[in-house]
Amino acid sequence: MSQSGNQHHGGAWKVAYADFVTAMMALFMVLWLTSQSDEDRVQMAQFFQDPYNTPLDSSMGVLPEEGNSKNDTEGEKKGRAKISDLKVLMNMAQAFMDLLNVDSSDPEKSIDLEVTTDGLRVTLYDRDSQPFFVEGTADYTDWGEFVVEQMSWLVHRHFFKVRLDGFVSDGFKGRGPDYSAWELSSDRANATRRLMEYYGVSREQFQGISAFGDTQPLPFMHPSADANDRISISLVLSETFNTLDIDKEPEAVFK
């Protein structure tokens, strides 16, 4: 009995040592990540969000192969962001938010903009405090039209492809049995398309429009929350994406 107990006690240090090594590795990773540039952190975050559709090109591999060039070409045709595009995209995102005086860290912000693996995603939240639409309609407010105008200039200048998705919060009371959340989300998405065309976006740049009614509320948010009244605008890189602004500061992107 005592021999068995001594053996069990003698191995406990191994568990403690393993925990210590794991903690030290975690500390090292945190310190290393905090020392990286914003661009590097965005790239790493995108990779772990979708490791099978990473924006990293073949030149980032440890052992580049000749066959990778074909895969890179196919990836570019699909609009996947390359390393050389990421700085431009981050500059655009920062410049767009600065132009509209939107604080990205504000949980109640009316606009959200994120860099994705194939471009940018802009979400317009039709909040009660700063609405994009006249209540219960697909008519843009003056503020909403101003935002779409600025975004349209960005899309036109940099040759983005566009996908539009419309969403409505739970509890919408339509103008009758034939006008529900489905119709309103569709009308708002199409109103966005028409307004973007009015401000210079070519009809050929639109890839698709979808309406989701009130079926997809935001995670961890009550279905009737005003933020669920939203338009999601995906700006997808095209083969003719303009990278002339790659070395410019964020405020210069809109000049």
Approximate strand percentage: 5-15%
CATH architecture grouping of the largest domain: 2-Layer Sandwich
Name the CATH superfamily classification of the largest domain: OmpA-like domain
Q: What proportion of the residues is helical, as a percent range?
A: 40-55%
Strand count, sense and barrel status of the largest sheet are: 5 strands, mixed
Q: What is the count of helical runs?
A: 7
Q: Helix and strand succession?
A: HHHHHEEHEHEE
Question: Rounded to an integer, what's the Rg over CA atoms?
Answer: 24 Å
Class by SSE composition: alpha+beta
Could you explain how this protein is built, in words?
This protein is α+β, with helices and mostly antiparallel strands and about 260 residues long. It has two domains: about 1-75, no CATH class; about 80-250, 2-Layer Sandwich (60s Ribosomal Protein L30, Chain: A). About 40% of the residues lie in helices and about 15% in strands. It has seven helices and five strands; from the N terminus they run αααααββαβαββ. Strands 1-2-5-3-4 form a five-stranded mixed sheet. Strand 3 (about 160-165), helix 7 (about 180-200) and strand 4 (about 205-210) form a beta-alpha-beta unit. Helix 6 (about 140-160) packs across helix 7.
Short description:
The chain has 255 residues and is an alpha+beta fold. Helices cover 42% and strands 13% of the residues. A five-stranded mixed β-sheet has the order 1-2-5-3-4.
